[in-house]
Prior knowledge:
The complex is a heterodimer. Chain A is mainly beta. Chain A is 0% helix and 50% strand. In chain A, the strands form two sheets. In chain A, strands 2, 4, 5, 6, 9, 10 and 11 form a seven-stranded mixed β-sheet that branches. Chain A starts with a strand and ends with a strand. In chain A, 39% of the residues are buried. By secondary structure, chain B is an all-beta fold. Chain B is globular. Classes of the chains: A mainly beta, B mainly beta.
Amino acid sequence: SAVISQKPSRDICQRGTSLTIQCQVDSQVTMMFWYRQQPGQSLTLIATANQGSEATYESGFVIDKFPISRPNLTFSTLTVSNMSPEDSSIYLCSVEGYRGSETQYFGPGTRLLVL
Amino acid sequence: DAKTTQPTSMDCAEGRAANLPCNHSTISGNEYVYWYRQIHSQGPQYIIHGLKNNETNEMASLIITEDRKSSTLILPHATLRDTAVYYCIVRVEGSGYALNFGKGTSLLVTP
């Protein structure tokens, strides 16, 4: 399966600041996604990261709050902007199209606590 | 994607088979059944998927009913490390769409 890393693995941040999360996969993939998992909840899709174009956001998520980049086929970033305690969650990236596979694989997640 | 229904929680004794059911009565002909699990807030781990035939890999077996309206994930010899939340998800393979996670089944494997 895909080898996916996320940085940082966890962080504690002050409200009003921003954090950029990196997702790196060890081989080119066609699709990359960003999810959020709030405490005690299931995963919710934030957006699809599109290579070379703007990300596609789900209802309730906006680019100003969660800007996303995908400069190439193995890397993406998610920024959580102007953070509040409600942003405390696990943020996960996933990939599809790894070495021709149509299965989605997930990174280990970034645990964010906003004080 | 079709909606799935799973029990909220299940228990299983270590060494016994864990059978996790999933209902997906509105599944379409081109939709696959996928199973993932999430161990203690780690990233979800892919387990297995299938269309209509039963599937087996080194982790588990997937049994899909003939009418495809339900399926069962079988962990043949559960261990304490199999304690996790198990998600049954229905989607078109390779659709490029994200996975729609429900609440899943919280499986507790006991000594």
